[in-house]
Amino acid sequence: MKTYFKVLFVVLFFSVLSIEKSSAQAKNKPELTIVNANTIIAKYYTIEELNALAKGELINIYKDRFRVLMGLMPYCALSTKPGTTLKDLGIPENADNKTVLEKEVKSLEAFDQYVNASLDNFIAYADKNNIVWAILFFEESIRKISLGKEY
User: Fold this and answer.
1) pLDDT value at position 1?
2) Nearest CA to 143 among 85, 52, 68?
C-alpha cells in the first residue's frame, strides 16, 4: 500500500509540475495580433529635422517607417490600432484563424529580415534628399492610415 501512495504522489507531483509549466508557457506566449504592438511611431519629423541628421540616422528612420507602414497596410480596413487582436475585432479565435495568423507572423519576420538586409545594402546609395523625401512620404501615409476617415 505504501508503494501505491508513493507512485500516486510521484504521478500527482509531476502532473502539477507539467500543468504549471504549460501554464507558464501560455502566459509567456505573446497574444497574436492583427496589428503588431510595435507598429507605432513615437515622433514624426519635420523636413528641417531630417535635413539636420546624418545619412546613417536617416537610413534607420527610413527602415523603421517602412516597417510601420508594412505593419499597418494589410489590415487597415479592420484596425490601425497597434496591439489589436482577433478578439478585439470580433473575429473568431478558432484554430484555423490562429494558424493563419501565426504563419503570417513568421512570414513577416522573414520578410522584415530580408528587406532590412537589402535596405542596408542599397539605401546608402540614395541621395540624402531622396531619403528625406521618402521618410516624409512614409510618415504622411502612416498618418493617413492611422487617422483613417478623420484625416
Assistant:
1) 54
2) 68
